[in-house]
Design goal:
This protein is of the alpha+beta class. The chain is 22% helix and 36% strand. The longest helix is centred in the first third of the chain and has 35 residues, at 2-36.
């Protein structure tokens, strides 16, 4: 009888220890998943070193050298943004391109009722990206994000097939890598800078061409403008 009482008394303690152990294992698993996110590709596996070295080189970029904000807890960047009027402030070789406004959206289609809610939205360090660049067809790709606080870096690559060459009327393919940095605010992306590199192309003279853009301003003391929040998709 005494042994039976002892077993009954020990049973609740065993259950508590079992539940605590399970919760601890689940918590540890959650921390590992949030910290590593195995589906996230590091920036140097997407963006060629030629671009990363270029934008970080003060001998090339001067005081405008870019150190992409890093960190595994980036801010929420979901929304539609208008990067323009676009100004090219650094490039290598000879420039050939279009300086019209670039449009970009993070998070996919917003909810029809709650426009601030994106069902396909950001998953910490990964987000669906829609981009429309002048002279190139609109595209949707997975993008990766890093950063801390309100500062972030988005990086991704896009493969454009069957692009029309306005100079010849012919067609060509192009794989381009993008790096966008800035600080997210209610107004948009402050100090927005976008760097691009042509990774591959059927037109070999386009390969390794680098272009770095900012949003043009009328203020000489503040030459880096804001990519404003504006609903553009899919109207333009």
């Amino acid at each position: 009888m005494r042994k039976m009482k002892r077993l009954i008394w020990l049973l609740p303690i065993s259950l508590v220890l079992l539940v605590t152990s399970c919760l601890k294992d689940e918590m540890n698993e959650t921390i590992v998943l949030m910290g590593t996110e195995s589906y996230v590709k590091p920036i140097d596996s997407i963006i060629p070193d030629t671009l990363l070295r270029y934008i970080g080189d003060s001998a090339v970029m001067g005081e405008n050298a870019i150190v992409p904000p890093a960190g595994n807890m980036p801010p929420n960047i979901q929304g539609e943004f208008v990067f323009g009027p676009r100004e090219l402030f650094s490039y290598n070789e000879t420039y050939h391109g279009n300086l019209d406004t670039l449009y970009i959206r993070f998070g996919g289609n917003p909810d029809t009722v709650l426009n601030s809610y994106y069902p396909q939205g950001q998953h910490n360090m990964m987000v669906l990206c829609d981009i429309k660049e002048p002279g190139l067809p609109p595209m949707s790709v997975d993008a990766f994000i890093m950063g801390t606080g309100n500062q972030f870096t988005v990086y991704f690559d896009v493969t454009y097939d069957n692009v029309e060459n306005p100079a010849t009327g012919g067609r060509y393919s192009l794989k381009r890598g993008y790096v966008l940095t800035g600080s997210i605010t209610n107004a948009g992306i402050e100090c927005a800078r976008m760097a691009c590199v042509n990774i591959e192309s059927s037109l070999t003279d386009l390969v390794n061409k680098i272009f770095v853009y900012r949003v043009e301003t009328d203020d000489p003391a503040n030459p880096f403008g804001t990519a404003s929040r504006k609903n553009w998709y899919p109207k333009n």
